[in-house]
Write a sequence for this structure.
């Protein structure tokens, strides 16, 4: 089991309040095997007799008596649902809701086109697939899809964090971002920026690569769908219809 220690991970506002029974139980269970791990979220699970939590970027289940700890996915066999992914999606949505427009680079459809859907994409200017995705940005926008980019420079791309900072500190961020995605040097501008914060967030959410796309409900869009404007538009329509049917 991997439990990287996070520099920060503000996923639930409840952390600032008194600890809940779920948090107390999870913390006690982890104390003997990973005492330094930060618990980003803990709550009642739909799995009977268990709490669920995100600790050090990993999703775990802890029995209410604190004796058993499991990590991995839980499935509702009869309903054919991945319960863990549903819970992860809720945590991701709560986290993204706290990231304001002042920390995003937004590419939205231009009038008279209207935005039908918004996706969040964790991206790295030195990631080849991120560049390929951005080459199609006009096609995504033409489908009524707004793309909110969050910087997540990967450690396997030395210097990508400085490039992200230079893009962020430019006068025209979208234009600077597009040029950087085309392989142009963004320069060396510096200023206060959200790059490190967003990197910590991505790691806390268990996101390991780029581009990673999240729908408005926090669900993760598979890359084979995300990389196709037509397939992505159809999938976002499907998710919206499913959400409307539940409400």
């Amino acid at each position: 089991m991997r439990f990287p220690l996070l520099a920060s991970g503000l996923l639930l506002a409840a952390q600032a309040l008194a600890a809940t029974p779920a948090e107390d139980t999870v913390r006690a269970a982890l104390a003997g095997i990973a005492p330094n791990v930060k618990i980003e979220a803990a709550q009642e699970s739909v799995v009977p007799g268990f709490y669920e939590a995100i600790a050090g970027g990993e999703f775990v289940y802890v029995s209410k008596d604190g004796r058993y700890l499991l990590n991995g996915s839980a499935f509702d066999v009869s309903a054919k649902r991945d319960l863990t992914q549903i819970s992860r999606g809720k945590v991701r949505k709560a986290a993204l809701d706290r990231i304001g427009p002042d920390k995003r680079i937004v590419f939205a459809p231009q009038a008279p086109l209207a935005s039908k859907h918004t996706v969040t994409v964790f991206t790295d200017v030195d990631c080849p697939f991120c560049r390929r995705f951005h080459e199609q940005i006009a096609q995504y926008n033409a489908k009524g899809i707004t793309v909110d980019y969050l910087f997540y420079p990967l450690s396997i791309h030395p210097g990508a964090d400085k490039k992200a900072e230079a893009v962020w500190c430019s006068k025209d961020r979208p234009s600077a971002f597009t040029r950087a995605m085309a392989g142009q040097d963004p320069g060396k501008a510096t200023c206060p920026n959200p790059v490190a914060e967003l990197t910590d967030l991505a790691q806390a959410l268990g996101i390991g690569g780029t581009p990673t796309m999240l729908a408005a409900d926090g669900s993760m869009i598979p890359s084979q769908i995300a990389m196709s404007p037509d397939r992505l538009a159809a999938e976002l329509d499907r998710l919206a219809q499913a959400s409307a049917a539940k409400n």
About this structure: The first strand starts at residue 39 and ends at 44. The two ends are 37 Å apart (CA to CA). Confidence is low (pLDDT under 50) at residues 1-17.
